[in-house]
Amino acid sequence: MIWLFRNKLRFKNVGILILLAIPIIISVVSLFGSFFKWHESHSIGEFRILKYFLVPIHPLRLVRVTQVDWHPHACGFIKCNIDGGAWGSPGHATSGGLFRDNSGTFLGGFVLCIGVVDALKAKLVATMLGIKYTFSIG
């Protein structure tokens, strides 16, 4: 829109008052900006510009952080914590686990990239690998 006003002035010698141009530019930017999914950015400058032009901003989905506590078990036992996950369903997946004694000392672990599968299969593979590793070390 700015180029349109500039070209009219330059090639047709038709000028427009800046006070009339600003609301037109804001309405056009707002109209076309609403067709896109603008996400919040970390720049307050970009936020101010988008707000000035009345472009709707969609907040990013918050990442959910979950605390996982490790609880000690009976003396003489080894605890195996396993998990598996996939990036997508199906997606690139990894399975893994770790072994600790009752004081929380790390005794060993394993991890394996298992290709493109869903999260359930990644968890099942982690369980099978944990059992296999446990039997291999006695």
Automatic annotation (TrEMBL):
Stretches that traverse the bilayer: 14-36
Keywords: Membrane, Transmembrane, Transmembrane helix
Annotated CDD domains: RNase_H_like (cd06222)
InterPro entries: RNase_H-like_dom_plant, RNase_H-like_EbsB-rel
Protein known as: Ribonuclease H protein At1g65750 family
Lineage summary: Eukaryota, Viridiplantae, Streptophyta, Embryophyta, Tracheophyta
